[in-house]
C-alpha cells in the first residue's frame, strides 16, 4: 500500500475520484489515449494476492475474470478488486472510484450505468457475462444491501 | 491480391453481403469471427423477407393456398438441405434450432433409451461444450460415463488412444468434424471406421464444416451428423440432425406437442413417423427457408475454389503469425480449416480483442466454449480469427497492423 492508498488498499474513491476520471476522459476523444488512460488506471490497482483470489471472490466471464473482496469499517464499504485483463482492471478502478469508501445507502443510490454512459464506457458493462463487470457490480450492491 | 489462381471474384461475392460495407468505430469492418457466426448474403435475407411477404402461413395444415405454399417451401428446404449433406431421403433430416439442439436430441432420445450403467460415450478434448454437456446430462441419468479422448500438443485426436478406449464399453463416439477453437480437421472417416469395428455409433458435430467443405454423410460413414444454419450463411435459430433411418426410427420422441403427434386423447397419444416425431410445435419455417436459400447460394459457387481461397487466407494468416514477434499459435494440426488461434505472449487475450475492436476488427477471445481444451493447454483462452469465403488477404494485413498497435499499447 502506498501513502495514497485507502482502507481498500488502493487509491480509488479517495486519491482518484469520479471527478478526476470524468475530467480526464472528457478531454480525450482519441480511442488510443482513452484506453491508455484506462489501462494506466488499472496499474494503480494492486495485484490481488493469490490467497485472496478465492472461489467466493471470483466472478467468471467468458473472456476475462474478476475477483472482488469487500469489508466494512463502520458504515463504509471498502473493496479490493482484480482482473486478468488490463482494460477490465482499469474499468474496475473506474467503478471503485464511485463505490470505495461509500456508505451502503450511497452505493445503492448510485446510478453506475449513467456514470459509465457519461464516460462513454457503458458498452463494457453491456458485455454482461463476457467480462464479469456487471456481475461484480451486482455483488457490490448486494453487499451494500446486507 | 490473392496468390491462388482462382475463378472467384471475391469482391463481387463481398458485394452480396450488405453488412460487410459497415463501418465500426470509424473503421471499415474487418469481420474475422465467422466461426461464431457467418454473415448473410442478400439471397438469404431476401428469401426470409419474401417468405414473410408472400408465403407465410402455418405448415402441414394445408387448408388453404398460403398454407400449401408455406408447406412446400418448408419441405422443399428440407429436401435441399438433406441433399446438401449427401442424403437422398429427406425423412432422415430433422430440423432443430442448431447443432446444440441436434446433439441434445441424440443424447436424450437415443442415449436415454439405449445407454446402460457402465456404458461409455467417447468425446475428444477438442470438443465444444455442445458436444460434451448433452452427453454428461444423459450419462448422469443412465449411470453411463463420458470419457475424453486425449489430444496431441498439435491439437489432433490421438487415434492410438481412441483405439485403446474402444476396447472398453464405448457405445458412442461423438467428435467434431472441424474444431472451432483450433481449426483441426479431424480424420472423421478413420474415426467412423474404428468406432464401427468396435460396435460403437458415431456422431459428428459438423457446425464448422458444412460451410467450408463438401459434406457427404454416406461417404463419411457416420450415424448422426449435426449442423447449424447460421454457421453456413443461413439464419440463426435453425439447424439439422441427419441420422441413419433405422436409428431415428427407433428413437422415442423427446419433446411433445403439436405437429409430432398422430392421435391425442387422455387415454394416451400416438406419434408421427420420422422426422416429424422429433419436430414438436410450429417450426422455424422462415429459418428453414433461409437455410434452403443458403444451400442454393453455396451450390451456385465453385466449392473447390471457395475451399482453396479460404485455405489461402488461413495459410497467409499463419505465415504472418510466424513472423510476428511474441505471437504463439495454438492448433498446428496437419489439416486445418477456418480458425487461426493464438495468444500474444504476456498480454491478456480479452484486451487484445477490445483494442482490435476499436480498429474495426471483429474476432473472438476467450475459451470459445471449449474449456477442457483450454485447460489441456493450461491457458485461459486465445485470440481467434476465423475466416469464410468473403475474407481477403487485405483483411489479414489489417489484423496484423492492428495487432502491432495492440502489442505497443499493452506492453
Automatic annotation (TrEMBL), chain A:
Gene3D superfamilies with a match to the protein in the record: 3.90.1010.10
Domain spans labelled Fe-S metabolism associated: 23-142
- Stretches that traverse the bilayer: none
Mind telling me which Pfam families this protein's record contains?
SufE (PF02657)
- InterPro entries in the record, alphabetically? Fe-S_metab-assoc_dom
Q: Which domain of life is it from?
A: Bacteria
What family classification does the UniProt entry report for this protein? Answer: Belongs to the SufE family.
Query: What name does this protein carry?
Result: Fe-S cluster assembly protein SufE
The organism's taxonomy opens as: Bacteria, Pseudomonadati, Pseudomonadota, Gammaproteobacteria, OMG group
TrEMBL record, chain B:
GO terms (BP aspect): cysteine metabolic process
Q: Does the keyword Transferase apply?
A: yes
Q: Which reaction does it catalyse?
A: (sulfur carrier)-H + L-cysteine = (sulfur carrier)-SH + L-alanine
Q: Give the keywords, sorted.
A: Pyridoxal phosphate, Transferase
Where does the Aminotransferase class V domain start and stop, copy by copy? 30-399
Enzyme Commission code(s) on record: 2.8.1.7
Would you tell me the protein name for this molecule? Cysteine desulfurase
Upper taxonomic lineage: Bacteria, Pseudomonadati, Pseudomonadota, Gammaproteobacteria, OMG group
Return the similarity comment.
Answer: Belongs to the class-V pyridoxal-phosphate-dependent aminotransferase family. Csd subfamily.
Species of origin reads OM182 bacterium MED-G24
